[in-house]
């Protein structure tokens, strides 16, 4: 019996996604496979970017379709074809084939039928072999970097001249697939303004001249204010350090007399601590980290500092935070405690040093390590071990888009010897302090640290009665809860019992690959993957990290760092060890040079940008890449989006009443993954 199969094929809309190459298809089903059929309409330009084309293939009855085998006979880069989806109908029957990957010139790609199934649920041997062949091909493309190359850090993709970044991972529409291009273009634009800048550079004043051509960060006119300083601790670029304390840290000498007029009338420091009105920012992780030190050919030494500083904040009678004490080191004999009662320049310098400490910690630990680099092993394990129809692959893939390219760009452009961080941050340079800092952060880290509720509770600021205004907490927790419900529902649909997970050979290989090459098992919340609840916990943490947490620590970089005096990434003078010696000229000499400022503005701008093809957690019109077709899963997705809409509305309502809105954790502004 002859059957007409209608194929509706959608080509991605990205620039260069279409092809003029000859494309043919073979349909493979439970009852055999068709001949190869060319897909070519007369007087029609097939497979243009963003197009949807329909073709009819007439062949014998193939039973249930298992896969489509596309052949691309073209030559050269322009022949590559970015295939999104294929829908096939034959009478009342229909099948869905999601792909969202390239079919390269002079190659053949098998696109597997899209019903989500665990390995033991696959009904036909040919479909089982197709899953295995797909993974074998992926494992050749996605190889782990040698252990010695990532010692002390999470496992990563091995990239070399002989094994380039897979085209499916290339960055956005850029030819060379790297965000280095974005940074280069930003720098080029900034350098156009350089002749307009004063030759005699005063970083506290002349920095305003730079923003005549680009947007001035909103905090630029209030950055010296104590309330602004404290605001950034709860809704700034790294709002994960503030903790409630009931006793002074060891080695921080502070008495009531030092705080004269800074606490509420009649309130002693001991009473303020006991009432949970004192909070701590502590960057002790920097204590033994090598700082930049280099001698040039003329014998001139350049040094930079980012001290292991700490700061006390006080919740005043208006229920707002204010900084009340700063120590720029850990030695009570050498490192004095500065307060607002000291000279205005002593106090301003102390706050700037704290922001520098925060910035170095943020860039290498809170941002690079705890979002970008801990995500990479999960991307790798997924691409190497889970075929397209696996429900966990379908759940994760959207959230892993561009992450491998971004991470490689960061390694080459920012972290490598001679990279941007060597030029601008205190921990960069010949001694690789920034790498040391990242490894130190990873040594202390476990995946459970990325659970927001437990982390916030550990820091004593979960209760709004203790810390009333904490937008990061109030926006992030509903998103975690929505993720947990969604992921738990999806996994529960496919894993009816823990035994289903234990018997899922593909998922068990995923786990074995992850702990063998990605990260030690002690970094994970369980030693064996035997409980569905553990998998829900792990995947919720990963997806929260790459979307919500990354948004929190990334998209305020321009606002936070571009006005460099607010948060310099290096200080060019050692922290003061005596009071009363600092004047305005001294602060100018402390903060970054003109060149360093330009780099910091440039990087902040590049890293705070959204792409034209960005896909957000709550996306207008729905997600572009849809992997599931099961009605039960789509209902869970709709419930997830409903919770995201409620979160968005709550954030908007609060921000209408807020003097400085916090929008980076608004669900319709959070990218699904780490895309920059």
From TrEMBL:
<dbReference type="GO" id="GO:0016702">
    <property type="term" value="F:oxidoreductase activity, acting on single donors with incorporation of molecular oxygen, incorporation of two atoms of oxygen"/>
</dbReference>
<keyword id="KW-0479">Metal-binding</keyword>
<dbReference type="Pfam" id="PF01477">
    <property type="entry name" value="PLAT"/>
</dbReference>
<protein>
    <submittedName>
        <fullName>Lipoxygenase</fullName>
    </submittedName>
</protein>
<feature type="domain" description="Lipoxygenase">
    <location>
        <begin position="116"/>
        <end position="676"/>
    </location>
</feature>
<feature type="domain" description="PLAT">
    <location>
        <begin position="3"/>
        <end position="117"/>
    </location>
</feature>
<dbReference type="InterPro" id="IPR013819">
    <property type="entry name" value="LipOase_C"/>
</dbReference>
<dbReference type="InterPro" id="IPR000907">
    <property type="entry name" value="LipOase"/>
</dbReference>
<dbReference type="InterPro" id="IPR001024">
    <property type="entry name" value="PLAT/LH2_dom"/>
</dbReference>
<dbReference type="GO" id="GO:0046872">
    <property type="term" value="F:metal ion binding"/>
</dbReference>
<dbReference type="InterPro" id="IPR036226">
    <property type="entry name" value="LipOase_C_sf"/>
</dbReference>
<dbReference type="InterPro" id="IPR036392">
    <property type="entry name" value="PLAT/LH2_dom_sf"/>
</dbReference>
<keyword id="KW-0560">Oxidoreductase</keyword>
<dbReference type="Pfam" id="PF00305">
    <property type="entry name" value="Lipoxygenase"/>
</dbReference>
<keyword id="KW-0443">Lipid metabolism</keyword>
<dbReference type="GO" id="GO:0034440">
    <property type="term" value="P:lipid oxidation"/>
</dbReference>
